[in-house]
Design goal:
Elements (H helix, E strand, L loop, with lengths): L3 H5 L3 H9 L2 H20 L3 H33 L7 H12 L9 H4 L8 H5 L1 H12 L1 H26 L4 H4 L2 H12 L4 H10 L5 H16 L1
Helix pairs in contact: 2-4, 3-4, 4-5, 9-11, 9-13
Length: about 220
């Protein structure tokens, strides 16, 4: 931090740049993000909103005002370089969504206010590194997704041909079969809801689903 004499010789933009990079400035923004995330969660309770809804909305507007001032300061300090950083664009979008008018046409966007809680990711360097690592892993993840889709498609065609006549509500079409197989892969009620009723018609149907679960689980891992 420059001393008082050096600070007086700086331009207004340089002073703004020092301010937005100051540790206490970042800590204050992080604190407000956490508080705002909590208040937005509390707003989902109708009982609490009936009692302190006005106060919560005032807190939300105050925090939003601080966020807007912060974004404007950062734009002023960095100029057009601000928009070269993807994290800055994310912050700009999240704060900008909250400024949309409260018309019905914008109601969906208004629900995105909770995205402000994700600003903590762009504020904390260690979290940014984690996200960067995930993004670098996307090529490998995309290959896994393609492999899973291929397995699903082959399995769905087989299941539709094997079980379509006996259980048309679950295996009548390719789309219905893929949805059923997705339920089976998640192991959510696959035995009682899918396989056991099917085994009354096709006694060896369990063999197909056991192999399917083993293959998809191995591919996912």
């Amino acid at each position: 931090m420059p001393n008082n004499t050096a600070l007086q010789n700086l331009t207004l933009r340089q002073k703004a740049s020092i301010l937005v990079r100051h540790p206490w400035f970042n800590k204050t923004i992080i604190t407000l993000i956490v508080i705002n995330a909590i208040t937005l969660g509390i707003e989902t309770s109708h009982n609490i909103m009936e009692e302190v809804g006005t106060s919560l909305r005032m807190v939300d507007r105050f925090i939003l005002t601080v966020f807007v001032i912060e974004i404007l300061l950062r734009i002023y300090a960095e100029g057009w370089r601000f928009f070269k950083n993807p994290w800055n664009i994310f912050d700009f979008f999240v704060v900008g969504v909250a400024l949309l008018p409260a018309y019905e046409i914008f109601s969906i966007f208004r629900t995105l206010r909770i995205l402000r809680a994700l600003r903590i990711v762009s504020t904390i360097p260690s979290m940014r590194r984690v996200v960067a690592g995930l993004l670098r892993a996307l090529p490998g993840i995309s290959s896994i997704i393609v492999l899973m889709l291929l397995i699903f498609y082959v399995a769905a065609v087989m299941a539709t041909k094997l079980f379509g006549e006996g259980s048309p509500e679950k295996f009548g079409t390719l789309g219905e079969t893929m949805y059923t197989l997705f339920q089976v892969m998640t192991l959510e009620g696959w035995s009682e809801d899918v396989v056991r009723p099917l085994m009354e018609i096709y006694p060896y149907a369990w063999l197909y689903f056991v192999v399917f679960i083993l293959v998809t689980s191995f591919a996912l891992l």
